[in-house]
Amino acid sequence: MTGIAASEAFYARLLDEHLVLVDQERAELGVLNPTAALLWLLLDEDIHDPDSLSAACAELIDDAPDDLATTIKTTLAEWLARGWLEQIRDGYRIIRRPCPAQDPDRHRGTWFPPGKQLPEYDLVSALTLRLGGRSFRVELGDTGAPGHPDTLARVRGVLSGMIAPTQDENPIELRWLHDGEAFWLASKDAVLWTRDESHAISSLVTALLQGAYAEQGLFATMHAAAVSRAGAVLLLPGVSGSGKSTLTAYLVAQGWSYLGDDIVALGRRPQDKGVEIHPFPSAIGLKPGSWPMLRPYYPAIDSLPVVPYSNRQARFLPVGGNRVPTETRQCLRAILLPRYSPDAAVEIAPISPVQALCELIGAGVSTRQTAHMGHAEILLQMLEEVPAYKLTYSDLDAVASALESLTTCR
To answer: Is 151 in a helix, a strand, or coil?
Structure first.
């Protein structure tokens, strides 16, 4: 452990000249720029008033800006409002008291013990899934109440990529339904009630991942796609609309292996403390702009149902057969932040670990797992060891050729 926080309420670790900070109480992961990092380290070490902080920062920062004192006062006010500081006489210090970790989703729903009575519902789908060598039975129910008419179709579409022909004995059972007011997710361990559609879907995904990979060192999930070639994995994080799904579908059509399109799970290899990718081969969600581009490779794409969600539309393309590897212990070769840009030449530009971390946070990296100090450390070590790039492309053939060189493990 290389954390440098004196306060037990935080985990802090330098990455380049920035400070990665984990707020243990809020389960939040963030990055402080060099000036804010210096300010935090000074306050974590001792009590300082604004004037002494300004003097210390001015001495330590080359070419300190003229508005440094104002910036410090503004930052102190923000940190005080967040509960990061305690005021002692005329000075401030990072709080020392340990704070119990809280669920970052605690305000998005209510968890009940197992056995909580669910509303009566009609069974819409009973899906047999296979993930991580485990068998699941997922029941999707409808109470007949109005509201969210497309959600069940979306969930069914996403999960269609993991449909299994047969079911093992004693599968992990999950039930997911909407009662007109809220969503319910029930397992043998707990029952979730939430009005938040995205939280309901993400909780279902989390239950599947934990059921499949609970014993495999799961330490983070992120909004990303992942493909592999010759056992070397390329991780493709990105916000919606970045072009990662289109690129992923094209690469799979060219013979690449498929590990996921929207959610990827990361685990820790026990033998060498490295990182391995755990597949979550959901059906690839393709928006209308990608349909013409992919039609030559997937002629049946027009026969897939169009599923509306969040003022958008998508078709969900299952990837089956031998395109999904059964072995998760593959080399994580590179992290690429894709961006489709019409008429742009292919460009693969290296970025720093701290730039990569900021991109991951922006795209969506789990706070529930990475707020654990040990898990945050694994994530940062991964960023220091695995090269990261920004990828700009418009031509699918050209970008596939360029990515071939990145799949040689070293």
So the answer is: helix
CATH assignment, 218-407:
3.40.50
* Residue where the block lists tokens 């974590």: 44
Can you name the CATH fold of 10-94? Arc Repressor Mutant, subunit A (1.10.10)
Question: Token pair for residue 218?
Answer: 């799961």
Distance CA 177, CA 169 (A): 24
Beta strands in 164-311 (DSSP E): 172-178, 183-186, 191-194, 218-229, 232-237, 257-260, 263-268, 275-278, 284-286, 307-309
Look-up: residue for tokens 């029941």? 139
Q: Share the mean pLDDT of the chain.
A: 87
The fold of 110-213 is Sulfite Reductase Hemoprotein; domain 1 (3.30.413)
Q: What would the pLDDT profile of 162-204 be if each residue is shown by its tens digit?
A: 998 888 888 999 999 988 889 999 999 999 999 998 889 989 9
Burial of 214 (0-12, 13-18, 19+ CB in 10 A): exposed
Tens of pLDDT, residues 231-261:
889 999 988 778 899 999 999 999 999 999 9
Domain boundaries, given as residue ranges, for the chain: 10-94, 110-213, 218-407
